Amino acid sequence: MSSSPPEEFEDFHTQVAVRVKGFRPVQQRPHMLWSASGRFVLREDEYVLGRGDAASLVFESEEVSRAHAKLVRHDDEYTIEDLGSRNGIMLNGLRVHAAVLRDGDELLLGDVVLTYREGA
Q1: Which residues does residue 79 pair with via DSSP β-bridges, in sequence order?
Q2: DSSP per-residue string spanning 44-70
Q3: Which of 4, 74, 86, 90 has the largest CB neighbor count within 10 A?
Q4: pTM of the shown model
């Protein structure tokens, strides 16, 4: 058995990443939820929306379930998913179980109205 590498690996070289002149990494745009009570800047990769103690974003409404919905960041966008809430999620007037959010989308969780903003 030979100790030299197979022929197809002879020209294999490890490349070192080099900074390209003029290249700047893309910064993630700020994402926010607006409500009648103010705005909340989304910085984390995941949030639970609800009225319970375990919720990341707490809403004081009996129409909102304790764990109503989950926001999850994927790259530079957020998705929302219903967590089996009693009143569900309305997105721009349509009932959804899960959806990718776009700038200006209006969410209704129980009687709480939220507007999703990107880059605002």
Answers
A1: 72, 100
A2: SSEEEEESSTT-SEE---TTS-TT-EE
A3: 90
A4: 0.74
- Residue 100 tokens read as 């990718």
In 10 A of CB 66, how many CB atoms? 15
DSSP label at residue 30: P
The residue to which tokens 């003029």 are assigned: 22
Residue type, 67: A
DSSP state of 120: -
- Specify which residues 56 forms β-bridges with: none
d(CA 55, CA 53): 6
Distance CA 62, CA 42 (A): 24
- Strand 46-50 and strand 57-58: pairing? parallel
